Amino acid sequence: MISLIMIALLFLIFSFNTIIEFATDYQWFKELGYDKVFLTKLMTQLKLGIPCFIIVTIGVYIYLLILKKSYHKKVQSNVASISDKRVNQLALGMSAIVAFMSSMTLLGSSWFEILAFMNATDFKVADPIFNRDIGFYIFKLPILQQFYYMSIGFIVIMGIVTVLFYILMIGTRRPTLFNSTDEDELNSRRINRNFGNKIDLGNGKQLLNIALTQLLILGVILLILIGLGYLLNIYNLMYSTRGVAYGASYTDVNVNIWIYRIMSALSIVSAVLLIAGAKKKNLKLALSGPVIMIVVSVIGNMAAMGVQNFIVEPDELSKERKYLENNIKYTQMAYNINAVEERNFKATDTLTREDIDKNEGTIENIRINDYRPTKQFYNQSQGIRRYYQFHDVDVDRYTLNGELTQVFLSPREMNSAEITDQWINKYLKYTHGYGVALSPVDAITSVGQPELLVKDIPPKTNMEELKIDYPQIYFGELTDNYVITNTKEKEFDYPQGNENAETFYEGDAGLKLSGMNKILFAIKEKSLKLIISNNIKSDSRILLYRNIKERVKKIAPFIYYDKDPYIVVADKKLYWIMDGYTTSSNYPYAEPYNKNKINYIRNSVKVVIDAYNGHTTYYITDEKDPIIQTMSKVFPQLFTSVDKMPPKIKEHMRYPQTIFDIQASVYRRYHMNNTDVFYQNEDLWDIAKEIYGGSDKSDIMESNYFIMKLPEEEKEEFLLSIPYTPKNKPNMTALLMARNDGEDYGKLILYKLPKQKNVYGPMQIESKIDQNTTISKEFSLWGQKGSSYIRGNLLIIPIENSLLYIEPIYLKADNENSLPEVKRVVVAYGDKIAYEETLNKALESLFGRSGETTGQEIPDGELPIDGDSITLIERANEAFLRAEEAQRQGNWSEYGRYINEVKKILVELKDKE
Questions:
Q1: What is this structure's pTM?
Q2: Is residue 53 over pLDDT 60?
Q3: How far is CA 460 from CA 264, 388, 440, in A?
């Protein structure tokens, strides 16, 4: 009894933190409405673990009792040093230890895989070799392989247990090795004449035979398991890297499969020969099976190498064509790029002013600002206090005054690292961030800074669609600590002149710190102040896991989450949207994307988190995905149909850059459907490169969001785009786009550019910018000591059947607090380049003003001076204003250039008189 009490106390001591975590986490999950999600793991481990523990314990215990009985029956021994009951107790203890280790290994990390196995959903697509549904490879094969390796480990453990138990038996009931005998036998078997006993070799042999018999049984089982392992290895050929492409190749299908089948059969034969050899006491017969297996394995590997080197490689394309087709087909399916809609894009140079005017919605949403300088601007102009921080700038679209408008926005979060370390400040007082900053991507002020539509504290805006009733941000990307609300201490809300506005939390998030909860959470957070603080009341609430990335992983760790959640203003509240992905490394024939060998991905989940209340909802956005279907069977309480997502939030669903960039990278090669072309890599593409910042070094372009009207469509939409160039070539060959709106969400379109002519790629445009003498001179001037220029992203905008290239240029003083300012916009079209203060002016330089015909190409640094007298007067006035601006900036070369333009225009006017 005392022993049981001691064991219980030890268990309580070592499990104390686990018990506290369980009690507090269960309450937290229940608060969110996900208590069944939390209990699923525990209930699975109990439902499977307890029976597994009991069965293995009984099985091993019976096995050890049989060993003991056999030992007592066949081996003569001295009087036992401990009782038989005590030996049984030790055997039971050993059995329980083995059972506990086995159960923990089985269910500690594999509980989810077991549930997925039990709830597997068919893909309704079969592999091309064995005709098995893909679901077998995703849900069943991995857990079968785990069971296989665990079984091998269990047999090894049982071998160790067998040896240890015999050592125990020998130690407690030592075999009688010396016995009295008659004189004749004594003379014939005496080893040492000084002893009056003999060594009983027969007794020793009995002991050895018992041990060998048990190890023989384990060896037979091990050989049978090895045979099953070879059968499983056959399916692993779906991930072979032997051939020219990922997946089973000619050699794998025609040689390796048969080798594995033969080896599997030989494993069974070896088990039989082992038994036969043991019965006949013929060691050669017993070991002949394993020896044959080794020989066949060596011969098989040599045969596979010979086939690969002498049959396949000399005629590789012909032999591997069928398997290349499999690789192309299944890779496209795995990354969901098999449904890319291909459209031809003429890329003509026939764009007119009329075309520009017809695409006003596209032009007005061209991104002149860049998110990186915008983040700096937000932090310096809208940070207000040191503890406020704009962690990230997101791109989204809003319908403002009836027009679809692309914007930058970022939440003003509370950075707890900037709060003084006093406990009351960190956990009771400074509890939340406040509001957002929001600006259109195309609008800048007179000094080249973003034009804010939402600014200051409390948030100010003239747009009804952007008004926020609950601007407080209790849950975000920077909120790394718990806070306590509804205390006697008012919370800091926002700075207000020389004083601070204060508030009480009115939401429903958090767990009440009443009764035992105060003690539980004090232990969890290792803070005695939770118990002794007079500010905490019985109805005070503790808000846990406020970091949204930590929050979603805590709820559903089996989903892969995007690293870039974004905030949304909807229904006058703030919400976070985080993309969730289902992934696998087990899709047959699909080329892995990264070092983790992931070769299947779907953006199947959108997680919406209320920034004020912390409500976290998992919406299924790809109901065709079998993995998310399986997850929803396992966790029916967790997932909600996307049809139930509030419409105002649904309007802001973005096709995420993460999955788009993966698809775009894979599509560089897997747009080729012809196996001959694929094999030769004849049409291999690269993601285009650009020059960003002040460096001349090129970098791979980022995918970018745009609002534009596609050539075949009737209205503007929100799109994600990336350009391709041929491998190691600068010209552009295609544009890949992902649609984001309504029923078109997630659809991919590839605009294929003509191959019979050169279509400028981004780096060719960058070179043309560098070669323009006016731009080059200004870059040299700006790059002198005291300032620097920054080249923004090069944007490629399809309009009608033509392409516009647009690059903003920033100027930044070389001091810590300087903000980059948009000073020029470069617009390239065909062989023409305009370099002006605004996008509209650059477009006017290239295409004339609204209502005018297309202008001619502009020589470096010159303004068009043709037109009637009124137009010339307007242009003279415009050039004079630019000269004044250059004078204010101290840019005397620009000043002189524009004054010369004024003179030329005046001469032209005089000639017209």
A1: 0.86
A2: yes
A3: 74, 17, 15
